[in-house]
Specification:
single chain, 7-stranded parallel beta sheet, about 20% strand, Rossmann fold, 3-stranded antiparallel beta sheet, alpha/beta
Length: about 230
């Protein structure tokens, strides 16, 4: 599918505009279906966007927030995406939203993934909004180059749901939605900032295998068009 690049002068301007686009998509979902769903990414980039979105005037009681991917760590860990979202997005008006975790306090990451798949079966078919990030190695969600289950995660035949992933660049075991869970979001966003990531994006837009830069699966073959939000 096609990707459109939206460029902003500053990170703050990007955060405001992305929050507005996401709030509009959530409002449209509520108007159409009576409820709306959004899956967001972790990392350092989304904080300002989360803060801007948390003040958006919409009926947050009808919104379910979940994560594109998560680390298999307890929710009070500084590495937890759940903690990032609770601290920065589920505040103010957005504190009325429901939150659907991917991490459960199970013995193994696989058990968490199975529970998360079951618990999320009622949302995101498709998601109203998915906001992806991208790492300097060309990963997105927990689709890491060299990831233990990368082929399965990206396979168009793999059903919707949450699966585990391990990779050298990932630290802890990860929990991630599969490609098929994310690719048809009504609003599918790739949020990246900085010149270094722009260069990575340009490399990914060139020829080469998806396994080298898994973001290519998003840039090349999603069912929905991708809106790329970038600021220096
Ligand atoms: O870390 C995560 O939770 C996500 O798996 C990851 O895909 C993230 O979006 C990128 O690594 C970008 O991270 P930064 O915003 O920190 O560069």
């Amino acid at each position: 599918m096609t990707a459109t690049l939206h460029t902003f002068e500053t990170s703050a301007e990007l955060a405001e505009n992305l929050a507005k686009a996401v709030a509009d998509a959530l409002s449209a979902g509520i108007a159409r279906d009576g409820s709306a769903s959004i899956a967001v990414s972790g990392g350092s980039t989304p904080k300002a966007f989360f803060k801007a979105l948390s003040n958006a005037p919409l009926d947050w009681t009808k919104v379910t927030v979940t994560l594109v991917d998560e680390r298999f760590v307890e929710p009070d860990s500084d590495r937890s995406n759940e903690k990032l979202v609770r601290d920065n997005l589920l505040t103010g008006a957005a504190s009325a939203a429901a939150f659907q975790p991917l991490y459960y306090p199970t013995a193994t990451a696989d058990e968490s993934a199975a529970t998360a798949t079951k618990e999320t079966a009622g949302i995101g078919r498709p998601f109203d909004v998915v906001v992806l990030g991208m790492g300097g190695d060309g990963h997105t969600a927990s689709f890491f180059p060299g990831g233990s289950r990368l082929a399965e995660a990206l396979d168009p035949q793999t059903p919707r749901g949450v699966m585990t992933m391990q990779a050298d660049g990932a630290g802890e075991p990860r929990l991630t939605y599969t490609f098929t869970s994310l690719e048809d979001a009504r609003l599918l966003v790739l949020h990246i900032e900085g010149d270094a990531k722009k260069t990575v994006l340009e490399t990914a837009q060139g020829d080469g295998p998806e396994t080298d830069m898994p973001i290519r699966a998003i840039l090349r073959r999603t069912a929905s068009p991708v809106a790329i939000f970038w600021a220096p």
